[in-house]
Amino acid sequence: MSDYGRPLEFGYFLVPEAEAPLVELARRADALGLDLIGVQDHPYQRRYVDTWTLLSVIAARTERIRVFPDVASLPLRQPAVLAKSAASLDLLSGGRVELGLGAGAFWDAIEAYGGPRRAPKEALGALEEAITVIRAIWSGERNQRFDGEHYRLKGAQAGPAPAHPIGIWLGVRGPKALALAGRVADGWLPSSSWATPEVLPELSARLDDAAREAGREPGELRRVYNVNGTITGGSSGGFLNGPVEQWVEELADLALGYGIDGFVFWPEGEQQAQLTLFAERVVPEVRRQVALERGA
């Protein structure tokens, strides 16, 4: 593991519960100077608003923060139309959109909503095809054609092109999925619930090996880590559960020792208070410590 020296970014993971003050929380994250807002995508959850609609409203009501689905449920998001949506919002927001993608999960719920039920191999194949389709639509070029097993383009008129090169970040963990990410993606979106410090070295090594085999430098890939936990006023309760000082130490270690360059905070507890603590006390100190270590 190593530090790839990329600039650090910090964000907020917004759970799209219909009764939550979603736009208020997003505006607070923007005002606090965070870089990213990620929104999980589970259309079949009856208590959740639609992720893409929420991202669009957030982009309209904020000034500078970037938005992305964390991660889009590909089986329920037809990739050519998803590409069009992302490019459109990127244009309308002045280049403030990234795209997190997943192969799919919760297959019973996906099937209940009319989506396909895919075996792991099929889901991974569909994810790879979707990336090809999405980039073709972003090209803005006419007469796009693609004949895949899961998706097709038959003379599609692509465009408009997005305002900036939108990053495709994959929320994946299996060996073959990590190989795909290292080969073709712009970034990786692990979560602390499954990509713990104990397994991060192995997962990252697979990503790096795949990148090198594809003729890429591992440092080209963004590594944006969803960090789920609580900032407390007391003693440590374990990884990502403790006082500000513990959070600073753990995130700085993840940046310097594990190559993580983005942290999206998914707090437990009272959201406004946790968000403020993270942005005002954790983020500046992590930036300072990482800068000091890199300078040394």
From TrEMBL:
Organism in which the protein naturally occurs: Nonomuraea zeae
Name the record gives this protein: LLM class flavin-dependent oxidoreductase
InterPro entries xrefs: F420-G6PD/mer, Luciferase-like_dom, Luciferase-like_sf
Record keywords, A-Z: Oxidoreductase
Pfam families: Bac_luciferase (PF00296)
Gene3D superfamilies the UniProt entry points to: Luciferase-like domain
Domain Luciferase-like: 20-227
GO molecular-function term, one example from the UniProt record: oxidoreductase activity, acting on paired donors, with incorporation or reduction of molecular oxygen
The organism's place on the tree of life at top rank: Bacteria
